[in-house]
Specification:
- The protein has 593 residues and is α/β, with parallel strands linked by helices.
- It contains 24 helices and 22 strands.
- It folds into three domains: 175 residues, Rossmann fold (3-Layer(aba) Sandwich); 171 residues, TPP-binding domain (Rossmann fold, 3-Layer(aba) Sandwich), CATH 3.40.50.1220; 177 residues, Thiamin diphosphate (ThDP)-binding fold, Pyr/PP domains (Rossmann fold), CATH 3.40.50.
- The longest helix has 15 residues.
- The N and C termini lie far apart (81 Å).
């Protein structure tokens, strides 16, 4: 192509490659991350990733947060991803830095969290020789990523980064790993961005045709006791509005999984709350006694089904999901529908509208006998606990937090009893407001995830509801919160024990304690460790609450604070999460007292 210069001479226009700047591999990586729209990166430096960090210091578009442990960094990236729906990004060095990400990668895999994890690697000529801080992170993570890359050519970095974000965020989201040898980071070449992504064999866009949807509507027309079993896939697909409309048009009751909390308004007349091991009795009863079960974006995991062959044993099951590998994996179904959920639910709503089916927000009349039965179960088996005058019951703490935040906060949790109580007693009215480790059940997840969520939504109240065992696993991230000015709050339900394991010891091992006491055996009256002293060392405000009368004012001070804040609340270790369906049992084996 020819063009004229200011002197009117005709010159050859430089090619794209000739016009592109010469950068090293680390600088190219940073430019690609900026182009991908990355706002924040959680990155811990080391020898094999130093060039990347040097390049990051020059970026004016991205915030780099230094976690105090690589696991804290990847959990924070997950919290950001779960709150926003965009891929979280974390960076570490090789060897132990990389292996410290493995738990977070597995967690993201189980909970379908979009994540791009970038690791430095030893130079290419040292790979396989047992070099200092070398490990095959590519091989280690193969079973727990959507895709992974070991960069072998600097020219491939722009394509790989573009593909990584596309894979992580499309279809059923998940983690992607990019491992970059140090010599590649230091090599130089001209930066050329790819225009598009083309991945042979990967087609994340799944839209069903109308035939199975019409079959589904025919099953609904003949049902007498239908239930919608909604999972986290509905939230991931951005299909909560479509689910609400579908439920109101069909007048079918809705239960969600733990990961699906927030997908359906808990105050809605058709809400059955959530189901599973510690879910509502009425949700489990309705699901298992339904004659038609519509599973939408859920995966029939063991914490929901219990004894899987007995789960909805006599009902017809429809399974609608974006991931074909989940269909008929755990439970055989009558009608599988492979599809994007937002599209399919939207299409079903249009079909119902064309048939003249109106939306009914309340006073449902379509299945009167079924509604009456569910109402009896709700009246007989509500969530409940014994409230006392001075002992602080953990359920009361969460009820009070829900009341004082008006249900308008992002809640993260660790894993254990506090996680289940948060699900039972906080009212999640909107999607992406509960950020918890569901499938992998990872202790230590809660507070780092709160940091990521708070960075994503700095003007929203973000509170980690945690246990003393779980909080202590990543307590070092208080330093990150303080230094970075991240005003994420934490309420520690401190019972001095590994509460959920203690509950199982009480129920199934005659109360024999197998190393579940976290306090000081030499001084049983002392609350150990002293979180006020720990927080003081980090420069973080902490209150320790021992009396019920002091709790409301303390929660208000925490919520009013513009800084990082920890509330350490002493609760009894004798309290159990109820109801409880023992592992491997059917819903009929539920423990309610």
């Amino acid at each position: 192509m020819k063009t004229k210069s200011k002197s009117a001479r005709t010159e050859k226009k430089p090619s794209t490659r000739e016009a592109a700047p010469v950068l090293n591999g680390a600088e190219i990586l940073v430019a690609c991350l900026e182009r991908a729209g990355v706002e924040v990166i959680f990155a811990y430096p080391g020898g094999a990733s130093m060039p990347i960090h040097q390049a990051l210091t020059k970026s004016k578009k991205m915030r780099v947060v230094l976690p105090r442990h690589e696991q804290g960094g990847i959990f924070a990236a997950e919290g950001y991803a779960r709150a926003t729906g965009k891929a979280g990004v974390c960076i570490t060095t090789s060897g132990p830095g990389a292996t410290n990400l493995v738990t977070g990668i597995a967690d993201a895999w189980m909970d379908s969290t979009p994540l791009v994890a970038i690791t430095g690697q030893v130079p290419q000529n040292m790979i396989g020789r047992g070099a200092f801080q070398e490990t095959d992170i590519f091989g280690i993570t193969l079973p727990m990523v959507k895709h992974s890359y070991l960069v072998w050519d600097i020219e491939e970095i722009p394509r790989i980064v573009k593909e990584a974000f596309y894979i992580a965020e499309s279809g059923r989201p998940g983690p992607v790993l990019i491992d970059i040898p140090k010599n590649i980071q230091n090599q130089t070449t001209r930066l050329v961005f790819p225009k598009s992504v083309s991945l042979r064999g990967y087609n994340p866009v799944q839209r069903t045709d109308d035939k199975p949807l019409r079959e589904m509507l025919a099953l609904i027309a003949n049902a007498k006791k239908p239930v919608i079993y909604s999972g986290g896939g509905v939230i991931t697909a951005g299909a909560t509005a479509e689910l609400l409309e579908f439920a109101e048009r069909t007048q079918i009751p809705v239960t969600t999984t733990l990961m699906g909390l927030g997908a359906f308004p808990p105050s809605h007349p058709l809400s059955l709350s959530w189901l599973g091991m510690h879910g509502a009795v009425y949700a489990n009863n309705a699901t298992n006694e339904a004659d038609l079960l519509l599973a939408i974006g859920s995966r029939f995991d063991d914490r929901v089904t219990g004894k899987v062959e007995k789960f909805c044993e006599h009902g017809v099951i429809v399974h609608m999901d974006i991931d074909n590998s989940e269909i008929n994996k755990n439970k055989h179904v009558r009608l599988p529908i492979l599809t994007d959920l937002k599209y399919a639910l939207g299409r079903l709503n249009r079909m119902l509208e064309q048939e003249g089916t109106r939306r009914v927000a309340k006073n449902q009349t379509r299945f009167p006998e079924w509604y009456a039965q569910i109402a009896q179960w709700k009246a007989r088996y509500p969530f409940g606990y014994k409230n006392t005058s001075d002992v602080i019951q953990p359920q009361y703490v969460i009820e009070l937090l829900n009341e004082m935040t008006k249900g308008d906060a992002i809640i993260t949790t660790g894993v254990g009893q506090h996680q289940m109580w948060a699900a039972q007693y906080y009212q999640f009215n909107k999607p992406r407001t509960l950020i918890t480790s569901g499938g992998f059940g990872t202790m230590g997840f809660g507070y780092p995830a709160a940091l990521g969520a708070k960075i994503a939504f700095p003007h929203k109240q973000v509170v980690d509801i945690d246990g003393d065992g779980s909080f202590l696993m990543n307590v070092q991230e208080l330093a990150t919160a303080h230094i970075e000015g991240i005003a994420a709050k934490a309420i520690i339900l401190n019972n001095q024990h590994l509460g959920m394991v203690v509950q199982w010891e009480d129920r199934f091992h005659a109360g024999n304690r197998g190393h579940t006491f976290l306090g000081d055996p030499k001084d049983l009256k002392r609350i150990y460790p002293d979180y006020k002293q720990i927080c003081k060392g980090f420069g973080v405000t902490c209150e320790s609450i021992r009396h019920k009368k002091d709790l409301p004012a303390a929660i208000q001070r925490m919520l009013d604070s513009k800084e990082t804040y920890v509330l350490d609340v002493q609760v009894p270790y004798t309290e159990h999460v109820l109801p409880m369906i023992p592992s491997g049992a059917s819903y009929k084996g539920v423990i309610i007292e």
